[in-house]
User: Which sequence fits this backbone?
């Protein structure tokens, strides 16, 4: 069985994939607290779902919205990915994949490397500097860890204190065999997209887009890819991405990551969106996805989402909230 955990990490990404032999984590975002806007939004939704209960229970003006949420059975604080690993008795894993250097995909990457042994890391070589959020003091160690791994070969990493971690790069074909372990296919970026990303100063365009095949299942993890990436993928890998079981929507379900032709071709049975606040209507592609996909789930409303893909083609979906 292949089991994927799409964690509710607020506005950001963190996906843990249990392959039959190995565990891989794609991105990390470790926020402690749900922001006020999200709390208000959740409370309003609970009011609609529970019309029989006194509104006062869930009033957005209550002094302690956390309590109101708990009373209603919704403890929608963002999931702490490091705690989640601990609770699942995972203190070492095979691979960490950093899709691209934006903070909502790297928050507490430094802490993660301290708390778990990671055999290898995938980072596309790039020359981006820290994004604005990384200027915060508390995030400097995350960026330092990223840069050390990005700029190092395995030998250099041994000197920096993470001796078990190898850095592998998509462009290094000599590492093909190791790359093929678990059968993850890298659909994007290619060197041209990486160049476009750097020329346009837009790390989203260098985001990894990954294809996992398991039995009859196809799973596409869209990172924060944008239209350029999907055009390229549709052109290069059209057959590979036809009729997928799971699409992890690109760029938190924003219109900038929604390329209709590609989504229609992928024709996903499940579309998963990892997002915090509800997006402004102008940038929210939820409705567009809903028209195409059979099951549309967001971590925003479902909490942690676990999908179990079986070799015989079955799929189970377990969500933290109904
Ligand atoms: Zn992002």
Assistant:
């Amino acid at each position: 069985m292949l089991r994927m955990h799409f964690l509710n990490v607020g506005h950001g990404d963190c996906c843990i994939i249990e392959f039959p032999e190995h565990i891989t984590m794609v991105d990390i975002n470790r926020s402690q607290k749900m922001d006020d806007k999200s709390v208000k939004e959740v409370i309003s939704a609970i009011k609609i779902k529970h019309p029989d209960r006194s509104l006062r229970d869930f009033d957005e003006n209550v002094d302690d919205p956390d309590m109101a949420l708990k009373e209603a059975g919704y403890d929608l604080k963002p999931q702490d990915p490091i705690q989640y690993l601990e609770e699942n008795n995972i203190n070492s894993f095979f691979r960490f994949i950093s899709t691209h250097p934006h903070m909502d995909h790297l928050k507490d990457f430094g802490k993660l490397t301290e708390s778990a042994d990671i055999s290898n890391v995938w980072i596309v070589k790039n020359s981006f500097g820290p994004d604005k959020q990384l200027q915060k003091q508390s995030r400097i160690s995350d960026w330092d860890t990223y840069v050390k791994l990005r700029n190092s070969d395995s030998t250099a990493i041994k000197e920096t204190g993470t001796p078990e971690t190898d850095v592998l790069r998509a462009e290094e074909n000599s590492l093909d065999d190791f790359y093929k372990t678990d059968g993850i296919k890298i659909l994007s970026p290619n060197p041209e997209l990486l160049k476009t990303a750097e020329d346009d100063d837009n790390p989203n365009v260098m985001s990894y887009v990954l294809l996992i095949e398991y039995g009859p299942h196809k799973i596409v993890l869209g990172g924060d890819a944008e239209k350029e990436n999907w055009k390229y993928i549709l052109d290069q890998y059209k057959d590979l991405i036809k009729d997928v079981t799971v699409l992890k929507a690109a760029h938190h379900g924003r219109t900038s990551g929604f390329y209709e032709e590609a989504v229609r071709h992928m024709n996903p049975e499940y579309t998963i969106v990892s997002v915090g606040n509800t997006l402004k209507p102008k940038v929210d592609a939820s409705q567009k996805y809903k028209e195409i996909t059979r099951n549309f789930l967001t971590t925003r409303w479902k909490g942690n989402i676990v999908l179990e893909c079986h070799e015989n083609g079955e799929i189970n979906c377990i969500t933290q909230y109904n």
